[in-house]
Amino acid sequence: MSGWLAIAGLGPGDEALITPEVTEALAKATDVVGYIPYVARVAERPGLTLHASDNRVEIDRSRHALEMAEAGRRVVVVSSGDPGVFAMAAAIFEAVEVGPAAWRALDIRVLPGITAMLAAAARAGAPLGHDFCAINLSDNLKPWDLIERRLRLAAEADFAMAFYNPRSKSRPEGFAKALDTLRQACGDARPVIFARAVTTPEEEIRVVPLTEARPEMADMRTMVIVGSSRTRIITRDGGPIVYTPRSVPA
Ligand code: SAH
Q1: Residue 6 Cα, ligand 1 centroid: separation in angstroms?
Q2: Confidence (pTM)
Q3: 3-state secondary structure of 79
């Protein structure tokens, strides 16, 4: 039997948000590869080997997955959310591009998932109803100056913005700087959504004006969405609805 490699997204947390396509690939797999907490979401069963590794070894993990597929195994590499969004799919293709020619002939498929940004937006209403951008606030893989520049330009373009990886213990200052930059660049009271652990039992959603947003409101399990100048809030019992109208008048 010939091997294959599926790069799959497990969605934001809730099992109901895993696609049937991903469930089917996991059911056929001989090996599951990924970051420890994501692999922990896959049920053990006879005939399935789980390979959990630390977060900082994405290229080693990619090579390992490709080698196993080349050797005839049925391998699923798992990411949370969508595998193409700040996750393993690009890491695999970086390895393919510089790897042995045989890897280009492998059966490699990317199986999409519901990314955290969309799950968070859905909880708040429709903050991404008009043009928006997504920015990873971690400076592990790019210089901080580039993040600052993108924040300023996104504010100037009046995009709603979705931020992944807003704040970690190893980079506590970055998000505070990002909020300062946004306050300077946006200069008004845009709504900020802090959506933590969306679709899990620990879910928390908080909406505050940009002027009141504090760095401590985010951690590594939080998605932060900042509205555009057009974003609206509908107040009601049981939490506000935040949405961005689909049109901008001429
Ligand atoms: N591939 C993933 C993103 C990986 S980056 C996806 O498509 O969702 C990891 C970041 O995603 C976290 O730091 C956090 O900002 C966000 N995230 C992932 N799951 C989340 C959840 N359930 N609730 C809120 N944010 C989440």
Answers
A1: 20
A2: 0.96
A3: strand
Domains detected in the chain: 4-114 (3.40.1010.10), 117-243 (3.30.950.10)
pLDDT band at 1 (very low <50, low <70, confident <90, very high): low
Ligand 1 atom closest to the CA of 199, numbered from 1: 22
Testing ligand 1's pocket by substitution, the residue of 117, 194, 221, 224 carrying the most ligand atoms inside 8 A of its CB is 221
48-61 exposure pattern, b = at least 16 Cβ within 10 A, e = fewer: bebebeeeeebeeb
Using a 6 Å cutoff on CB, does residue 96 contact ligand 1? no
Q: Which SS3 state, helix, strand or coil, does residue 196 take?
A: strand
Tens of pLDDT along 27-56?
999 999 999 999 999 999 999 999 999 877
Helices (H), the chain: 20-28, 36-39, 58-70, 88-98, 116-124, 144-156, 172-186
